[in-house]
Design goal:
single chain, 363 residues, alpha+beta, Lipocalin, 2 domains, 8-stranded antiparallel barrel, 7-stranded antiparallel beta sheet, 9 helices, 21% helix, 35% strand, elongated, disordered N terminus
């Protein structure tokens, strides 16, 4: 799967009368970090005629390697946090100036659009994370959606006019692990203080990995257009953590499942997505479906280790329930599963438990 594609998973229900109702699951197996960013910009279009678009690849620059305009501090950030910066064609380094609100370490400007991107640490994240989670590692790795939104807001509060954010969107927990090799992240749209930036709008990307810390980069612009959105998307994955969340042996054993999507159960109300290091299971609300609206009732995201002979080990790290909110267990226990593939059909069962599905490949 190309992780830079914008996946939209549309389910069509045909009623008894023969009419069709198209619905999109916001927190669905086909969501990606890129989609969250595009959605944020599309929503902004409703307010000020804006929307987002696509991304293209650039040239990879590892920490310590020389690149025109790259500061020593930015190289140190990449080295200390074990990150990779990817320079994007068409962007030129510009001078980094001192700033009282956030001292970014590197800055580039598009040669085709009025867009500047600044890179640096995220000094407000760790205090906010500590205030929310203390020293609890599981919380630091996967804070609740409510807590994460608060942390993301705090990340840009010193830079935002009035300390306020216009829009906050956490990334899906499985997608951010794949696309940024981070435990969590998100985007924040805000109006920057005039003493921070001369531009009228800022869209910040914040990512965090336990044991590495947090970093932030942001696009600064005045008016959003489709062309500017395209240009911003080309650099959207330009900074990420270097080490993959998935172990090589696990990836080898899981080749048959990785990057596949399934629809399971007699009513087809369970959706699954397997990635290199995560497994997401979404149970659709049948009550909402009966009314023609598709909504996740419960979303379960787990770390996964693929094993030989059609098995894998799953450990839940987030359960979100439509009615009861965050239902993540305090001390989740690993569960072994076994699966069998036959054409586009998969049978999947939990070892030692009466839990099984028959699934059809959807992608």
């Amino acid at each position: 799967m190309n992780i830079f594609k914008n996946f939209i998973f549309i389910i069509i229900f045909v009623t008894g009368c023969g009419s069709k109702s198209k619905n999109t699951i916001d927190n669905n197996p086909n969501n990606s970090v890129k989609k969250q960013n595009a959605n944020s910009q599309k929503k902004d279009k409703k307010d000020k005629g804006k929307k987002g678009s696509e991304r293209a690849a650039g040239k990879m620059v590892r920490a310590g390697n020389s690149v025109t305009g790259n500061s020593t501090e930015f190289s140190n950030l990449q080295s200390n946090k074990k990150m990779i910066y990817t320079s994007t064609s068409g962007y030129k380094p510009i001078q980094v100036t001192k700033n009282p609100h956030w001292q970014h370490l590197y800055s580039v400007k598009s040669s085709t659009q009025p867009l500047e991107i600044r890179y640096g640490g995220a000094p407000s994240v760790l205090p906010a994370l500590k205030s929310t989670c203390g020293t609890k590692e599981s919380c630091q790795k996967t804070p609740s959606d409510k807590a994460l939104r608060g942390i993301l807001k705090a990340s840009v509060a010193p830079l935002a006019k009035g300390g306020l954010s216009k829009r906050v969107k956490p990334f899906p927990m499985d997608s951010v692990r794949k696309e940024f090799s981070a435990h969590w992240g998100g985007i924040v749209l805000f109006e920057p203080k005039s003493t921070f930036a001369k531009q009228k709008q800022a869209l910040a990307v914040i990512i965090f990995r336990h044991g590495r810390g947090a970093t932030m980069f942001m696009g600064l612009y005045d008016t959003h257009t489709k062309a500017l959105g395209n240009e911003w998307m080309r650099a959207f994955h330009s900074l990420r953590f270097r080490e993959s969340m998935a172990k090589a042996a696990s990836v080898t054993h899981g080749k048959a499942l990785i990057n596949t999507r399934w629809r399971c159960g007699k009513a087809g109300s369970v959706f699954m997505r397997f990635m290199k290091s995560t497994w997401k299971v979404i149970h659709i609300s049948m009550a909402m479906a009966a009314m023609g609206t598709i909504r996740p009732y419960e979303t379960i995201t787990s770390n996964v280790t693929y094993l030989p002979k059609g098995k894998f080990l799953s450990t839940v790290f987030r359960i979100d329930n439509m009615e009861r909110g965050d239902r993540t267990p305090a001390q989740p226990k690993p569960q072994k599963f076994k699966y069998k593939l036959k054409g586009k059909t998969m049978t999947l069962s939990a070892v030692g438990k009466k839990l099984s599905w028959t699934c059809k490949l959807s992608r």
